[in-house]
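Readers of this paper often ask what the protein records in our data store actually look like. An entry from our holdings is shown next, in its original layout:
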Amino acid sequence: MKKVCFLFLLLFSISVFAQQEPNLARLKTRNEKLKAWLKYTNEILELEDYPKLIIASQKGIELSKDHPAYTSRFYLYIGTAYEFSNNQYKKALFNYEESLKYAQKAHHLKNETSALMRLNYIYYSVQDTIKGKSLAKYIKQVLDTTKSNYTKAVLNGSLAEYYMNNYKYETFIGYQLKAIGYKKLLKKTKTNEENIGISYLQIGSTYTRMKQYNKAIEYLNEAKPYVKNSPYVSAFLCNYYLQSFGPLKEIDSIQKYYKLIYTYPSVKDSLFLNLSFANRSMSDYYVNLGKINTAYDYAKKAVALGKKSNDEDILMEANTTMGRVLYEKGDYKNAIETLKKASTNALSYDKESFVSINKKLSQSYAALGLWKDAFHYNEIYSKYNDEVMHESAKQNIANAEARYQNKTKQQKIKNLSTENTIKNIQIEEAKKQRIYLISGLALVGIIGLLLFRQNQNRKKTNQKLQLLNQELDEANKIKARFFSILNHDLRSPISNLIHFLHLQKENPELIDEETAARMQTKIISGAENLLSSMEDILLWSKGQMENFKPHFKEISVEVIFEDTQKHFSGIENIEISFENPENLLLNTDENYLKTIIRNLTGNAIKALEKIENPKIIWKAWQENNQTFLSITDNGSGGNQEKFKALYDDSEVIGIKSGLGLHLIRDLGNAINCKIEVCSKPDLGTTFTIISL
């Protein structure tokens, strides 16, 4: 019965398609050919045509040279074919080992997982305990390193099988529950749901072996919702219910599940397998009740159906049951004949069944007075029974030791509880004193906390006042700057306008009609330019009232020069020229730069009073990736002390001086400009704006 679980995984993991050999000549790449051939072998596997599967997989191995992942899969299919066609375990073993080797070479975890699962069963079947133990150790290493929930689900199940085969039932249950946990993490599919149900079913059957029938029924009930859509698995579930309800002598449940098995449709072999299983359980039930004739009828059915199932394991178990019934009937010769048939492969299938068969053979020969044969089979029985009992005893000793340790710990806990009661009384008294002390300390702490918070609030208030004072100081500075800007940008145009008006009023006889018309045009143009400049400055000032910060953007130097020329268009007696041959662009704040240029131009105009042939030249050029703007006048010049406000933050120049160098200095710093001055007495002055 051990291989039933793999049959479930095999039969329900894939769907059946039409079996048709692919024409590889039509496919271009080797990879396409391998994929097509693998699909073809899958279809043969689904149809359980094992001879054809061997031939197709051998061709697949030839096709997949230097493709170890595919080679691994084809060897796995050959192993499967040999295993499930008359239990050719040795041939299956070679191919499974080859599959594992190529899977490890390809680092193909899924193929490696499948090969490990099958090898675990085959090593048990051929009784190679050394390789089986080594494989179990390797599986544990894989589980310790893998992150694949699929691999954890399959290989925990394989370890569970390993421990069940070695009669370590509790360890088996632990690993099987782990496997169920990982299966529940996988994608919810029909196959996976059925495999979860099969795992619960295996745990239930194990509790039946341990004669814990109510616990077995509990896990069989867990399996039921997972396998309800699978008639094949549901039939096995009914059989395990029979094995559990039989010893409990619950006849209604026994009859219910026996009849239910006959209602499940299934493929031919699995139908006979399940029906043989069911009739064997019914025979065992009636033997235990002493109704030997009824038991014999069920045993006959079990053997007949076992032969039709083509499953040696099922037939072995049916013959074991029949041998027992014949022994109870007193038909010792037929009992011996039947039991010998059962013993042929019993050891490879189930050691407990092998032990039971040899016990009955010994008893049958003894009943016939054939003491030599009876002694021979009794020796076999004793040997293998000792092994089974030894494994069981080790588990029982471990359980007994655990129970003893638990009992000892409980006694220690009881003693400690008594001691704790006494200490608790002492602790209660100490608590009262501690409460008084803590209350006093808490009161002092609260007072300290209040004082601390009061001090913190005072600090916060002082910080807020300091911040408000800083904001007020900054606002005053901003206001002073705007007054300076208004003074320097508007004073000169207004002064020129007033000068024209006074000249027209006080000395009209000096002005002829042509000059009067020209001056009137100048006055109107100057007034319009003045209005435009005022609007420009006031709008900019409004936007800068809260945060006096530059807003950088790319502007044309030509636009700045045109604005400056327009602003000072009322100046008649001074020649103002602009040179920008490269049509430069600057990334700066337009209003800041305009203000600097207007102030420097206004200062130059004042410096040219009483100078013959006064000239102002604005230039723009680039040099070493830097942009330069310069203004040069041919005025009287001066020394460096006169321009100290450009370099000394503490130096203050009065507004009426007309220079406003403190304003130029601050605005230049704001837009990342350096302003240099070169002035020579009687030769003039040059201011250079360097964009950093």
